[in-house]
């Protein structure tokens, strides 16, 4: 993994030129910090795009660890595979092509870290579907939860984004109030929610 830095740089350039949305630099740093503390064996990522955050996460895996990543755009999966092969981490990644909302219920593994970064209007649905697949002490990280600041000030959101904004708000309310999660919302990049799973019993 010696060349990870230069591959990440290349991916950033590719994403900028091709208009592929990827996690911000500071968001990526937080993602890596949280993941490095959790030392995950099993990671689930929703929304691979070109594999930029997948590569960040791959650098934090415990030996023998694996990332399952779901993406609905097959062209992006092909590009991600090439980048992750160049980085020498392809063997640790399982790609699943499809709609995350349909794929997640079919997964049988438990996960130590879940990164939600697919359809913004579906975050709460994804979380409900992933809940029985969280290992004790797992962390769920969701990107873009403040969505250009509109989640905190929904009246400013253009009409076409109001449903997404409403749903992101519902996601944040859920992870802030449900006893199974302890959540911090980070005002970096487009906003990231880091939610530690406390288990199913309310003590
Ligand atoms: C913001 S990008 C992911 C960026 C990536 N996590 C990163 O930071 O490098 C969101 C991706 O989710 C994919 N996506 C959107 N809706 C999806 C769905 N319902 N199921 C699976 N993938 C989806 C999009 O095609 C897009 O590539």
Which range does the strand content fall in? 15-25%
Secondary structure class reads alpha/beta
What's the mean pLDDT score?
Answer: 95
What's the CATH class label? Alpha Beta
Would you give the CATH topology? Rossmann fold
Largest sheet: 7 strands, mixed
Q: Please write the string of helix (H) and strand (E) elements.
A: HHEHEHEHEHEHEE
Number of distinct beta strands: 7
What is the CATH superfamily classification?
Answer: Vaccinia Virus protein VP39
Number of domains: 1
Radius of gyration: 16 Å
The hetero compounds bound to this protein are: S-adenosylmethionine
Overall shape: it is: globular
Strand order of the largest sheet: 3-2-1-4-5-7-6
Low-confidence stretches: none
* Ends distance: 43 Å
As a percent range, the share of helical residues equals 25-40%
- Per CATH, the architecture is 3-Layer(aba) Sandwich
GO biological process, one term: tRNA methylation
Binding site for S-adenosyl-L-methionine: 23, 53, 71, 99-100, 117
Protein name: tRNA 5-hydroxyuridine methyltransferase
InterPro entries: SAM-dependent_MTases_sf, SAM_O-MeTrfase, TrmR_methyltr
State the main characteristics.
globular, single chain, 203 residues, alpha/beta, Rossmann fold, seven-stranded mixed β-sheet, TrmR_methyltr, binds S-adenosylmethionine
């Amino acid at each position: 993994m010696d060349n990870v830095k230069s591959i990440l740089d290349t991916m950033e350039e590719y994403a900028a030129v091709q208009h592929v949305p990827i996690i911000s630099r500071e968001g990526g740093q937080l993602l890596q910090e949280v993941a490095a503390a959790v030392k995950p064996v099993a990671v689930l990522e929703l929304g691979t795009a070109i594999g930029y955050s997948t590569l960040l996460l791959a650098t934090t895996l415990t030996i023998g660890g694996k990332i399952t990543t779901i993406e609905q755009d097959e062209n992006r999966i092909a590009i991600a595979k090439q980048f992750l092969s160049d980085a020498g981490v392809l063997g640790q990644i399982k790609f699943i092509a499809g709609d995350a909302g349909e794929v997640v219920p079919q997964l049988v593994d438990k996960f130590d870290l879940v990164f939600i970064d697919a359809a913004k209007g579906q975050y709460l649905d994804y979380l409900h579907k992933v809940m029985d697949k969280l290992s004790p002490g797992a962390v769920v990280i969701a990107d873009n939860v403040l969505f250009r600041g509109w989640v905190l000030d929904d009246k400013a959101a253009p009409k076409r984004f109001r449903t997404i904004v409403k749903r992101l708000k519902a996601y944040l309310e859920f992870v802030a109030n449900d006893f199974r999660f302890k959540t911090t919302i980070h005002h970096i990049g487009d906003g990231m929610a880091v939610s530690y799973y406390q288990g199913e019993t309310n003590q």
